Amino acid sequence: MNHLVNRRICFARRPPGQPTADVFTIAEGEVPLPGDGQILCRNLLVSVDPYLRLKMHDRESYTPPLEIGEQIPGGSIAQVVSSRHDDWQEGDLVAIPGGWQDYAIVLGKVATRVDRERAPLEAWLGPLGMTGYTAYAGLLSMGQPKAGETILVSAAAGAVGSLAGQIGKALGCRVVGIAGSDAKCKTVVETLGFDACVDYRSSTFEEDLRAVSPDGYDIYFDNVGGRISFCVQKQMKLFGRIIVCGLISQYSGQNDLDPKSLDEYMRWILVRRLAIRGFIVSDLARNHPEFHETMAGWLKNRQIRLETTLYQGFGQIVPAFLAMLQGQNTGKSIIRIAEAA
Question: Residues in domain Enoyl reductase (ER) (predicted)?
Answer without folding.
Answer: 20-335
